[in-house]
Amino acid sequence: MSRNTNNEVVPGAKNALNNLKFEVANELGIGNYQQVDKGSLPSRVNGYVGGNMTKKMVAFAERAMASGGQIPQVAQAAPPDPLNSQGQ
Fold first, then answer.
1. Domain presence at residue 39
2. Sign of the alpha-carbon dihedral angle for 6, 20, 73, 58
3. Residue 55, in any domain of the structure
4. Is residue 45 part of a domain?
5. How does DSSP assign 17-60, residue by residue?
6. What pLDDT does residue 51 have?
7. Does some domain include residue 26?
8. Number of separate domains in the chain
9. Which listed residue, of 12, 20, 53, 77, carries a Cα 20 to 30 Å from 27's Cα?
10. Could you tell me the residue range of the domain that residue 57 belongs to?
11. For the segment 50-86, what is each residue's pLDDT rounded down to a tens digit?
């Protein structure tokens, strides 16, 4: 019996979220995240992936709200790279 009680807010978004997860993991240098056993990874690693996914989704939502919902691509909403930011 599954213990997952999460309900989908947007049906069909699961594939897009999985793609985002693997893209973020790849950006963080975890190239084989799709195949690796997530339970064998430290929680910090999984937390980095989830945290960066959240940053991207919030940035996308902020830009969509600021532009009246007129953003054609999610890629435009990528948050600035914290390693290359200048004190922001």
1. yes
2. positive
3. yes
4. yes
5. HHHHHHHHHHHTT-TTTTTS-GGGS-HHHHHHHHHHHHHHHHHH
6. 95
7. yes
8. 1
9. 12
10. 14-69
11. 999 999 999 988 888 887 766 555 444 455 554 554 4
